[in-house]
Amino acid sequence: MDLQLTGKRALVTGSNSGIGVAAARRLAEEGARVIVHGRNQQRAEAVAADICASGHDAIAITGDLSTQQGCDALWQAVEAAMGGLDILINNAGGSDDATRTWETSHWPDWIEEFEMNAGSAMRMTEHALPGMIAQKWGRIINVSSAQATMPFPHSSPGYNAVKAGIINTTTSLARTYGKHGITINCISPGPVDSAVFREFALDLPPLRGKTFEEAEPFLANKWGVSAGRLGQPDDLAGAFTFLASPKARFINGVTLRVDGGMCGFINV
Ligand SMILES: NC(=O)c1ccc[n+]([C@@H]2O[C@H](COP(=O)([O-])OP(=O)(O)OC[C@H]3O[C@@H](n4cnc5c(N)ncnc54)[C@H](OP(=O)(O)O)[C@@H]3O)[C@@H](O)[C@H]2O)c1
Asked: Do residues 183 and 137 touch, judged by C-beta distance below 8 A?
């Protein structure tokens, strides 16, 4: 299927590692002109160079998105490089300490998690919307988490809460901007084997000292991932590219779980 992404201008925030790399690479393979982003410049440039070496179009722009200033600076650089965006993937996020509990997390940690996950996404969305409205076409994809709807006691409550808020915001934006030819959807990953996830998972008490290969079946079973394994970043790439494409034009405001069948409740 031709996803009709040739020449589309795409920014994938947080694409110098993990899930974002796979999304950026697949968009570029589908013909999009991609901006690879993260805070670490060396990794962003390496990902962009790798995409270009395969004959596709990518550049790297770096910056911290947890502040208004950082988001403004990234937007200025995006405009200078591409004159605006057709596709914005708000993937940057996570938690500085995913193992925080109700006992160990305090309001400043919540603020930090909100700035990193929602602040980055909402500020970049604000920047991207006027151009998308003017051109009557745009795609915004937010990234939530299975933890948003199925919070684990061992994962940060602030992170879980902000990821739930991102789901709500997605539908709210979709209801407001759908009339402009813009869709705003959300992808909700289950556990995905990125470097940060490995660090978190292999530090869980029963798994300390184990390799990822030893830990994976235990985790998939414990968390009820019906696929029997954890996700790889590339398992999400197809969902990103499809939702970003003109083919997905009547899908708006949804949260698509890409979790190997982990969440055991009906999607509403
Ligand atoms: N892996 C999972 O199991 C999983 C599950 C559910 C949801 N998610 C979500 O999926 C997204 C990607 O996660 P991942 O596992 O692929 O993690 P990752 O490999 O750590 O990627 C996170 C990306 O976000 C960037 N980033 C983080 N904070 C930033 C900030 N303040 N300003 C700018 N960039 C920032 C990082 O860049 P630098 O490294 O250069 O800072 C990196 O490129 C996140 O939103 C995460 O919450 C992941």
From this structure: no
